[in-house]
Amino acid sequence: MQSRVSDIDSHLTIPPTDWYQSLTAAGLLNPAVHGPARYWLQVEGSFTRALQKQCSRSFHVEVRREGFATPTQEEARRLRIPHRQHAWIREVSLCGDNQPWVLARTVIPLKCLEGEG
Q: Which InterPro entries has this protein been placed in (predicted)?
């Protein structure tokens, strides 16, 4: 499989996650969360479909970067892959009404890409 981007340099800031001791510590399970934040934290099923329903005009996914690259040290640790091992990385913007609403990054380890598709 040929990469559309041979040397991907992430344009997304990827914060470390270790400082979140728990969802409660991050305030995500607090029943006092109200309004739009509560709705978006409880979306079940397709998050993209939920975003589409909120658009008044249009929705599209803009591929920012896609290709084989080295995950961040944190991503490699979380995925239990060797540091500096390449993976398929895709970064997209989910845009509603021509505005980027969500920036998303997917990292797929090489071992998940083996075999017949």
A: Chorismate--pyruvate_lyase, Chorismate_lyase_/UTRA_dom_sf
